[in-house]
């Protein structure tokens, strides 16, 4: 097997795989669209959650059928992905001894196809007893799209952060907030209020950065409090592996990603946080630093899984 992220290369073998792309499936980095944590993402592919993880190689066979080849040589796949991200060509040819499984279909959307072979399609049932993999449904708002929205915010942090005016966050003793029926300091971290500012993501996974306590925003505020409470509980009782992940940001800061039942949180350790909820379709709820958010983010960062 050989290839790049945007051009498939045949090996000349009858069972050659035209490699289109590859992704990591490890505790620190996995396609979050597949689950809230690493074990859940592995279960979506019927794989055991090995500590070192896997590499997923997505491609087509000579007939154009979609296949996902699972390998345990994570370093090989990581090097190839890093090269592709830098615009470099890099061959990806896992040794057969590293192949864990060959699964029909693709668990993720792939925007390219191998040249010179039929259009991508599921393998014939005669070739496998397994049902073909398919990307999670993101046509309507739900867990998969909520996690994609969080991915987009983490990737485009500066763009989303620019939408939020720090002066709009509720401050202690803010009489205007009290007069509007907003709780003053009932939550551990400050949430924002005011008008909604639009901010479509490139994938449409999350719709708008919604400042809390606007019209009908009582439930979002309650939802944010629930998320912060559940995230705080992670510090005392570690959740499944991969529920909290930490990656590089600017300077000494880290980007934190935490997920739980029905929610996703994205934050910078030196800044604010954004929350997405299953029950709030397309809404992105900013959470100000307040008196306790910095400590919570610091504690989560200490327990988070980090890329090796």
Give an account of the 3D structure.
This protein has about 300 residues and is an alpha+beta fold. The protein folds into two domains: about 1-125, no CATH class; about 145-305, no CATH class. It contains seven helices and 13 strands. It has helices at about 40-45, 75-85, 145-155, 155-160, 175-180, 220-235, 295-305, and strands at about 1-5, 10, 20-25, 55-60, 65-70, 100-105, 195-200, 210, 245-250, 255-260, 265-270, 275, 285. The strands form two sheets. Strands 7-8-13-12-11-10-9 form a seven-stranded mixed sheet, sandwiched between helices. A six-stranded mixed sheet has the order 2-1-3-4-5-6. Strand 1 (about 1-5) and strand 2 form a beta hairpin. The longest helix has 19 residues, at about 220-235. The radius of gyration is 21 Å and the shape is elongated. The model is unreliable at about 1-15, about 170-190, about 190-205 and about 210-220 (pLDDT under 50). This is Integral membrane protein. It comes from Streptomyces siamensis.
């Amino acid at each position: 097997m050989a290839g790049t992220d945007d051009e498939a290369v045949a090996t000349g073998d009858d069972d050659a795989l035209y490699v289109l792309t590859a992704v990591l499936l490890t505790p620190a980095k996995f396609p979050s669209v597949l689950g809230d944590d690493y074990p859940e993402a592995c279960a979506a592919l019927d794989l055991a959650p090995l500590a070192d993880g896997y590499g997923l190689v997505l491609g087509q066979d000579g007939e154009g059928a979609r296949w996902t080849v699972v390998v345990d040589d994570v370093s090989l796949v990581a090097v190839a992905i890093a090269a592709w991200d830098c615009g470099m060509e890099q061959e990806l040819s896992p040794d057969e001894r590293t192949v864990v499984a060959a699964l029909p279909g693709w668990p993720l959307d792939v925007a390219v196809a191998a040249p010179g072979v039929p259009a991508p399609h599921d393998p014939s049932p005669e070739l496998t007893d397994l049902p073909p993999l398919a990307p999670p449904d993101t046509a309507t708002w739900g867990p998969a799209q909520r996690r994609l929205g969080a991915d987009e915010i983490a990737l485009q942090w500066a763009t989303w952060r620019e939408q939020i005016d720090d002066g709009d966050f509720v401050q202690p003793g803010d009489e205007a907030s009290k007069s509007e029926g907003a709780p003053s300091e009932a939550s551990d971290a400050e949430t924002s209020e005011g008008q909604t500012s639009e901010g479509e993501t490139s994938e449409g996974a999350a719709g708008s950065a919604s400042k809390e306590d606007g019209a009908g925003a009582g439930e979002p505020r309650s939802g944010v409090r629930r998320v912060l409470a559940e995230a705080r509980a992670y510090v005392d009782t570690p959740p499944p592996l991969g529920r909290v992940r930490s990656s590089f940001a600017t300077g000494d800061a880290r980007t934190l990603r935490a997920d739980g039942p029905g929610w996703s949180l994205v934050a910078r350790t030196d800044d604010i946080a954004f929350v997405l909820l299953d029950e709030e379709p397309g809404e992105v709820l900013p959470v100000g630093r307040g008196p306790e958010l910095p400590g919570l983010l610091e504690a989560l960062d200490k327990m988070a899984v980090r890329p090796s």
